[in-house]
Structures are given as structure tokens and as C-alpha cells.
Amino acid sequence: MLKQTEGSRAVAEAVAMCRPEVICAYPISPQTHIVEALGEMVKDGTLSPCEFINVESEFAAMSVAIGSSAAGARSYTATASQGLLFMAEAVYNASGLGLPIVMTVANRSIGAPINIWNDHSDALSQRDSGWLQLFAETNQEALDLHIQAFRLAEELSLPVMVCMDGFILTHAYERVDMPTQAQVDAYLPKYEPRQVLDPAEPVSIGAMVGPEAFMEVRYLAHAKQMQALERIPAFAAEFRQIFGRDSGGLTHTYRTEDAETIIVAMGSVLGTIKDVIDEMRQPENGGHKIGVLGITLFRPFPLARVRESLQGAKRVVVLEKSMAVGLGGILSTNVRMALSGLHMHGYTVIAGLGGRAITKKSLHGLFRQAEQEALEPLTFLDLDWNMVNKQLEREKAHRRSGPVAENLLRDVGVVAARNY
Amino acid sequence: MSFQPVKFYQTGTFTVGNRLLPPEERSVQASTKRFNSINSGHRACQGCGEALGARYAIDAAMEAADGRVIAANATGCLEVFSTPYPETSWQIPWIHSLFGNTAAVATGIAAALKVKGQTQTRVVAQGGDGGTTDIGFGCLSGMFERNDDVLYICYDNGGYMNTGVQRSSATPPAARTATTMAVGPEPGNVFGQGKFVPAIAMAHNIPYVATATVADLRDLEAKVTRAMELHGARYIHILVPCPLGWGTPSHDTIKMARLAKETGIFPVFEAEDGEIKSVLAIRRPLPVEDYLRPQKRYAHLFGKTPAIETIAHIQALADKNIRKYGLQARKGGH
What is the CATH number of domain A2-243? Predict the structure, then answer.
């Protein structure tokens, strides 16, 4: 059924149709609307049976989910940013124990400086945690991916993180096609755990493992993700059969068939990129041969698919909302791995950190520069060099140059002036 | 009930051994049909108070729940000595997740059981004092205030013994640990720090809070049994001497626990809905020196020049416990 609704609300309704039995909630922007909506559904009885637990921290949220999942209940939580970092120890623990928890990450930057706006630093900080990571491009895909996530998690006994851009998706009102309960029930069978805490069949879970088997346990975590890589296209195909639309899978390409320049990106920025590509491809604009590869599945990373999609291009521009400080890009490092041995120009563009708008105008300029091989290997889109240089000068001039972020804000005039 | 008549050898105490009771009143542990929830063959040190406390507590919980108990366990000695596979000691469904999240994991298990209607299965969480009073305290307090249906048992041996005897917030004043060294003008742990979590648990107004020691195992069993009759958040804090960390002979674990109680160092009581209901009375309070002197962690108090002031300070704290909790037995009382 088509309806106009907020991204968070759409996700909450999709999660509710998946019949979660335990939901742990701790408030952090921009995820909060999702658990608020679910809490209301539990309280008024539309989502039943379900335990909605207001916990005291994100660390507790993931820990409660670990307990409930180990006791055989379908378990869900949502978080973002600092919250994801605060629960990091439990995030690794959930995947190490093989518990199929589903968690929404409403992508947001990580402080300091504290910033509530969107980028991908939070989810990508957990890229090696053993969770599957799916990135939604639109609100439709966000809600669809949650339904697929429960299926995937429970089939593989692995936790799944569904990442959607904070505010840009979570707070945007868009038209979405809501599935029916019957469709979701047809797609998502009842949860049958591989391991469960049951007095009738007692097991110890989470015992100490020494050097004699630890490597093998870790290898199996990798092998399971490789299995996921093989099975995800089938899950997406089955989804198309029941719900009648394409969602999920490994990657999405757009106008890459004859493209000499291919952009690689994740999340909602793909929409803007596609608009720019459409404009650049018009004959009156020069008919640029340019396309985009959207990464839906970040973990496991679809190396073969990415290579196949990019190998015909002359150059690849990875545009990412994340940064490996001291190295460059995170997504681009992964893409480079897929391209090993291929000779082509590769560019890393860091963009949109902390909610900095990624405009069509900037992308037009950026992509044209790339076509002329005039880009630096590592570019920070729309970086204000004046602001940066002023601070560097200040640090040269004064030992006690003061807190960096506050200096920059003063320079741009957000805070009352105080001269050194 | 099958039982063997056992001759009573216990001497030098004022307690009556449970083996003298008629069979129907005997303890869970005295029965040959006990659950052995934590089986023999584990790797605890000789004389480990925690292993003893856990054995009695979990078997009593199992007896009360008709064999339907799920346990969540914090990282620590109990987890390490009981689990290296394939030699797990646990005969019950048992999960270890992390050091600081045990109460929350237990909350999750209880929620799953509730949603599935398996309310006859009960949840016990357990951890040492580090996992309870320090790193797990946030999750513990959260579980308490939500009144989740979990019995949390803390085995308090006064420090991080698993990592090599470091200070926790349950380490008593003046005690030497690897991080409260017995050097300098004020050797050992600092006075005026630390917390007594049973009192904090009571402040949450949860249905049941009790303390116990491994010297009074009948009392410990009775408290676990009472806790299992109730629902909601329940907390039992058991003093479990650690021969390694305390520097006491393995065969003196029970004696040390008894001295902790008989000196007033460790008050033994039970509380319901935030109010103290009963205490384990001290008939003839003993001087704290009797408790401190045998322990190597207090050896610096008894050198060439005994630390009389420090010992007096500890005595004052014990006396305060006796007053505060009304531990002194009235004349003619039992």
C-alpha cells in the first residue's frame, strides 16, 4: 500500500511486521523516532507478544538483545553514532556468539566535536565487528532491507546492521510502498534458533576458548560471511517475487554500461549522484560517459561484483561519507582491494562529513575534474581551506592555541569573537 | 529422601550443623539428589569461596525452580574456572557474554521467557565484585530500577582476583592488593572509599536484598530459596574468601568468612522492599584483629610496630556495622 510517511515510521512499521519479540530502546538522535513508534505499537497492543524494554545505555541495549536472542526470542534494537561506539564491546560479542540480532543504525558522525548530523563514520567503525552491514539508498529500501535483514540474520545465525542516513532518510517524508503482513509472513519464517538457552537441553554458551581453537572459530565467522555473500542475491530475488520490487542485493549500478567514469558510493547520496549523471549524460551537456555503482552490502564486501562492475571503466571515483584518518578513505580502500591488478585511475573523495551538504553543483565540478584526471588522489569535497589554514597558522604562532573546534567556529562567526 | 547419618564434628563455633537436622529439614546440598549444577572437576583454587558459594546458591535456586534455571555469568574467576571446553562444569543452560553486562543479558533472557510464556523457568545472573560493583554496576542498577525478574548473585571476594588481585570498589580499607600496595605512609587500600552494594540495592526498593557468607551455608540456601519465591529484581551479596587474594590457608576459607561476620566487618541481613527484615546476630562479637591478623593482605598492620590506629579505625567501622544493622544479639536471645 502506498503511503506518505516518515522514514523512521516506515522502518518501525516494517520491523513490527517482522514480529520482533524483544525490543530494547535507548534514545539517541537520529534513531529515536523508530523505537518510539515501536514502543507505541507494543503499548497499545498492535505489536504483541513483544517486550519493549527501556534500558539505561546502548551497551545495555545490545546486552539485553544478546540475552533475549540467546533465549530464543527475535530481538531488535536501533542506535547511532556515540551509541554504537558505546555498545561496541557487545556488538562484537553478539556476532562472536552468532546471535541473529537486527539493528538499525541511523548513520551519524562521531565526536569530538559532537555533531548530530549524517555521515557513515559510526557504522564503518564497526565494519570488522562480524555483523552484516546493509546500506539503504531510499526509505523504501530501508524498510525493505529490514525485512530481508531478519531473514538473513536468522538463516545464517549472524547479526545484521541496517544502515540508513540519519535525518536525510530517517526524518524525510517520502512515498513508500508498505508491504502487507501476509507478504512479510510469507517471506520470513518463524525464528528457529541454532542454539538456545533451554533447561530441557542445557548448553554452555560463551565459554573460554584458547589458542587451540580460536583461529578456527574466527575463520568460521569469515566463512559464514562468505556464505552470506552467495545467498544474499537469492534472498533479494525471493523478495522481488513476493513484494514485486527490487531491493537489497549486493550492489546497484546506474548507467555504467558504457561508462568511462564510474562513481562508487553508499546510501542516500546515490540519489543526488544519479541526478548529476543524468544531467551530464545529456548531449547538450557534453554527453559524458559516466555512471554510478551503489554499494548496498558493505559487509561482507562484494569484491567480485565490484570488480566486475568497474573493470570496464577508465577511472573510478569513490565518494564516501567516512574517513580513515591517516590513510584516506574506508570505502575506497575496500574498492581498491576489488580492483587489484587492474590499471585505472582511482580517486578518493571524502564528502559530507557531519552533515555537510553534498550539492549537485559541487558534484558536477568534481566529476568533470576527475574526467580530466585533474583530481588529487585524495580530495576533501568543499573543504574550506581558509578555515583550515587559519588554524594551522594559529597553532604555529601560539603554544596555547586553544581548542580547535571552538577556534574554527569563532572564525566563521558562530561564537562571539575573542581575538588572540 | 535418601541420606546418610553423618556424625557431627563441628567444633569451636556457636552454630548448629545442618546435618543434625531431621532429613526433611536438611539442606539442598545435604541431599544426594541435589542438582550439582556446577559439577566437580572445575579449575578453581583449593579452598575457593566463590566455587563453594556458587554451588550452594545455584543448587538452591534449581531446587526452588524445579530444575528450570538459566544463568548469565560475568567474566571473572567463576566464568574462567568453570568453562574451558570440553570441561564445562555447568549442568544448567549458562551464558557468558561480557564482564560488564551480565545483569542486562539476564534481563534479555527474562524478557524472552516472558514473551514466550515460559514463566516457570527462572533467571539467575552472577558475577564477582568487580563485575558487579564496578564495571557491571550501570547494567545492575538498570536491571534493579526496572524491577526485571532476575536474581542477581554477587560473589564478593574483595578484589579482581582473576587478573591478579587488584583493587575493586569492594576492596576493604587497608587491604593490600596489586594496585593498593602495602607501601608508603598509608599502606593498603584507602579509607573512605568503596561502596556497599547491598545498601545501594535496597535504595532501589527492589523486592529482596540479602547478604550471606560461605560460613553459614544453611542461611545462604534459605536466602536463595526465599529470593526464588519472589519475582522482580532480587539481589544476594555473598562474601566469599579468596585464599589467593587474601593470603589465607585454603583450609581456612569458612573460618575467615565466619570471622568476617562475627566481628561485624560483614553484616549479614535480609531486606524486603527496601526494609531490613532480619539479621544474622552476633552472639559474642570478636575483635577485628582476629579477622585481620591471619590474612597476608593485612600483614603490614602487624609488623614490628603494629598499626594500632589503623586497626582501631577498622574496629570502629565494624562497630558501626553492628550498631547500624542491629547485629548484637540480645541477652538471652539465640
Answer: 3.40.50.970
